[in-house]
Design brief:
mainly alpha, two-stranded antiparallel sheet, 11 helices, 4 strands, 3-oxo-5_a-steroid_4-DH_C, Polyprenol reductase 2 isoform X2
């Protein structure tokens, strides 16, 4: 009888432990989900906070002229900055800082996200991915394999694709800043404009992989921890097949490749326009203003900003929702380019 009672109490405790473990796992899953949502939400708020003043200042209402004047004062640089307003300014050649930071940061995010995608996320098929996304958007459930759903797989490989384009952009801008542009020694920019540019080139690449950034972070931490604990010699060998590394990018679908075509169309024309602007400094005196000619300069007055807008349009084309981090990032670039 005592044994039965003891056995019964043991079963009760065992059931209680199972229930507690189940509850803790559910609570952990909820916390993990909430943590995954925090970063995209913070980025959206940051982009909206950066975009909203520019949009408000663009409204043609006399009472808002003061806001337009303030923002224009922060955005002025080079020839359009008055020589008398040198307070809180930095040399314009500090543009180089943006692209050094952006190149290092984007490369880091691209390499780690790509490694995570190749190691942890199976390739995604276009038909399966889009049917799952459609089911998700209309309220259905996403099919999962292990802990990774089809929707999550698509988001990870999409992030790799977007970061590749961002890498192409920042590396080209780094090259142009060093070898193409010849900044005048007297050219200045406002310190707030400098901080805004630094924020943009840190937040924009992160926005492109915001949906999977936390998973990539956990993957990297586990990899480093494993390396420290078991040592280099005991790490499992990783076989890399080149086709398997790039093949999932070709399965993302036509929408991404059309967007990438628009991106590189703007990318090529921006490179040409920057080359034209850089050549003016070689052929003229440092402080003399010259009207550029050629390429899109024959059509619009600021084709380098127009081409930047075309590059940014892809961020909006790839968005599944109107208020995604990438959409807000693209909107920020378009608004700021149009107002400078």
């Amino acid at each position: 009888m005592k044994m039965n009672n003891s056995h019964g109490s043991f079963n009760q405790r065992d059931c209680s432990d199972i229930v507690l473990q189940s509850c803790s796992r559910e609570n952990y899953s909820v916390m993990e989900l909430e943590m995954h949502m925090v970063l995209p939400q913070l980025l959206r708020l940051a982009w909206i906070a950066g975009t909203l003043p520019i949009l408000i200042a663009s409204i043609p209402i006399p009472k808002l002229n003061f806001l337009h004047t303030i923002l224009l004062g922060f955005a002025r640089r080079g020839k359009i900055m008055h020589s008398s307003s040198q307070k809180f300014t930095l040399p314009q050649r500090f543009f180089l800082h943006f692209y050094i930071v952006a190149s290092i940061w984007t490369t880091f995010l691209l390499v780690t996200t790509w490694c995570y995608a190749y190691t942890m996320v199976p390739p995604v098929r276009e038909s399966s991915a889009y049917s799952t996304i459609t089911s998700y958007l209309i309220g259905g459930s996403a099919l999962g394999t292990g802990s990774t759903t089809m929707l999550q797989r698509h988001a990870v490989w999409q992030a790799v694709f977007l970061l590749l384009l961002m890498e192409a952009q920042v590396l080209r801008r780094l090259f142009e800043t060093i070898y193409v542009f010849k900044y005048s020694p007297s050219a200045r920019m406002h310190v707030l404009g400098y901080l805004t540019g630094m924020f943009f080139y840190l937040a924009a690449p992160l926005s492109l992989c915001a949906d999977c950034a936390l998973d990539v972070f956990y993957f990297l931490v586990n990899l480093v921890t494993k390396f420290i604990v078991i040592g280099k010699d005991h790490m499992p060998a990783v076989e890399v097949e080149l086709w398997q590394v790039v093949n999932p990018l070709f399965r993302l679908g036509w929408r991404h490749w059309i967007g990438a075509t628009v991106f590189f169309w703007g990318w090529i024309h921006q490179q040409r326009c920057h080359k034209i602007l850089g050549s003016l400094r070689n052929s003229r005196q440092a402080e003399e203003y010259a009207i550029p000619h050629g390429d899109w300069f024959e059509i619009v007055s600021s084709p380098h900003y127009l081409s930047e807008m075309f590059c940014s349009c892809y961020w909006m084309v790839q968005s599944n929702h109107m208020v995604t981090s990438c959409f807000c990032a693209g909107k920020f670039v378009i608004c700021s380019s149009g107002n400078t």
